Predict the structure of TetR/AcrR family transcriptional regulator.
Amino acid sequence: MAKAGSAERGADAAPGARRRKQHARRQEVLDTAARMFFERGYEATTTQDIGAALGLLKGSVYYYISSKQDLLFELVQQYHDDTREHFEPILASDAPPVDKLRELIMVDTAHTARNLERSTLFYTEWRSLPQERRSVIVAERARHESAVQEWIVAAQAAGAIRPEVDAKIASFAIFGMVNSVYRWFTPDGRKSAEEIGRDFSDLVLGGLLTAAD
């Protein structure tokens, strides 16, 4: 009976083990695709290239993905999900608006720099997606920009940020600076991702805050 019970438990565990293996293999496909899109560009990379890098036949790649476009969309979504993980706690916090702004600039900059493959892919290849999928990305970006604009306006009302600052233009400038880090950051450079995040935060707030702050 003990042997029968062990066999049953083994049979129950087998599907779970297979699912974990499939999930790990699928993530390997995603990671390989991200690296190849980063190195070659999305348009220049084929599913056959991705399969060859993994030792898979072209047909076998489609066991893990439905199309190259779906693969790109999932990679872009994964990067957005990672960004959301640090954005949502800042958004929900009771910290003063200036502190929220400082934290977002530091964390966003460091995240972009630490994840060069994914951030480069996100900022350079998302336009390769069809309109209905690009709209998902645009909507999420607009949400971030709106939050920053609200923080700036609230800080102006509290006397912390200069009243003549245009909140919309300031938010565009902030994200333009933060989102460009992937173009020039090198992991073995003079400053770390976190140090650059602090520098960016000091630079932005130095131009926004009133003299008293």
